[in-house]
TrEMBL record:
Its EC number is 1.16.-.-. Belongs to the Dps family. This is DNA protection during starvation protein. It is an enzyme of class 1 (oxidoreductase). Residues 23-160 form the Ferritin/DPS domain. Pfam families: Ferritin (PF00210). Keywords: Oxidoreductase. It comes from Duganella phyllosphaerae. PROSITE patterns: DPS_2.
Length: 161
């Protein structure tokens, strides 16, 4: 049930809006978990690649921060509340928090996995969004997939000999 007492008539059924908002809530949770992981690693990275990774992680978490707002606002435009608590994010996210402070290349591995998990979450929504003919959400998902796949590739490249 929508949290808005004014009827929403944007050409998407209530069922479609509800299902898409639920999927986007999962994407928001994965995106926030990825953001937090990346920012944590930015603060705590050390070793010979400190400067490169510190700067790379900053660029990544800054981009991710902007994306959080876009995803949450799309959920709101569909007529639903966006999740916004740690408890909700933990429940909805497919990405698990990393314990402790891993070594630099382990941080990179964790980020590759988290970028790919976030891409999978976004991609899983595409059939539902296509069936509903929801172009704004499809556009958002396509943009997020492009960023997550490219970032995963760049991080993965650091792990190759």
């Amino acid at each position: 049930m929508s949290d808005n007492s004014v009827k929403i008539d944007i050409g998407l059924s209530e069922k479609s809006r509800s299902e898409i908002a639920a999927g986007l809530s999962g994407l928001l949770a994965d995106s926030y978990t990825l953001y937090l992981m990346t920012h944590n690693f930015h603060w705590n990275v050390k070793g010979p690649m400190f400067n490169s990774l510190h700067q790379m992680f900053m660029a990544q978490y800054t981009e991710q921060w902007t994306a959080l707002d876009l995803i949450a606002e799309r959920i709101r435009a569909l007529g639903y509340p966006a999740p916004g608590t740690y408890a909700q994010f933990v429940q909805l996210a497919t990405i698990k928090e990393v314990e402790g402070v891993p070594k630099a290349m382990e941080m990179v591995r964790h980020l590759v996995n988290a970028q790919e998990a976030t891409a999978r979450t976004a991609r899983k929504l595409l059939p539902l969004v296509g069936e509903a003919d929801d172009q704004p959400t499809a556009d958002l998902l396509t943009q997020r997939l492009d960023v997550h796949e490219k970032t995963a590739w760049m991080l993965r490249s650091l792990l190759e000999e």
